[in-house]
Design goal:
- By secondary structure, the protein is α+β, with helices and mostly antiparallel strands.
- The chain has a domain at 71-190: Fimbrial-type adhesion domain (Immunoglobulin-like).
- The chain has three helices and seven strands.
- The radius of gyration is 33 Å and the shape is globular.
- Keywords: Signal.
Length: 191
Amino acid sequence: MKGKSGWRQPSGDSRSRVGVLLLVPMLMAAPLSALAAGDNNLYLHGALVAEPCVIPPGDEEITLDFGTIIDKYLYLNTRTLGQAFEIHLEECDLTLGKTVSVTFTGTENQALPGLLAIDGGSEATGIAIGFETPSAKPLPINTQSDKSLLHEGGNIIALKAYVQGEPLAIAEKTIGRGSFSATATFSLEYE
């Protein structure tokens, strides 16, 4: 039979077409239930620990800006003055630990053992970053510091960082100018 639009209805029962349309979604859903895997296919693990102190939120990362350093200053003094920074500890519980030590982990400068190498993408060359206590005692990279006594509640670990010229770069006056960055990770050991 031909209608005005030129469409011709196929012969047969229209109910069979509806039945096929309803059957297709059921066939598509069947493989989803077959995808359910066997028992014990998710494994979770971790460790619960009791740390004596907590680093307050927002203090987990420390950024230190040395600003502009004039190369002539390094040629005359070999290093900058130490720039102060702090690691804040809160909620210290002395029943869990009475002392803390700090380790800065990173890539050591080959020309200045114990100092942190600057990152490879830095423009500056011939320099390294050193860490020290406020009394100018060196804290070599990748080496645990001396233990400091903790106090109940809040504590501050005061430290300094400085820029030092490599001996050969100072002797030959070849410190490369430009921006620099360095990255280290600090970890705390409680006893």
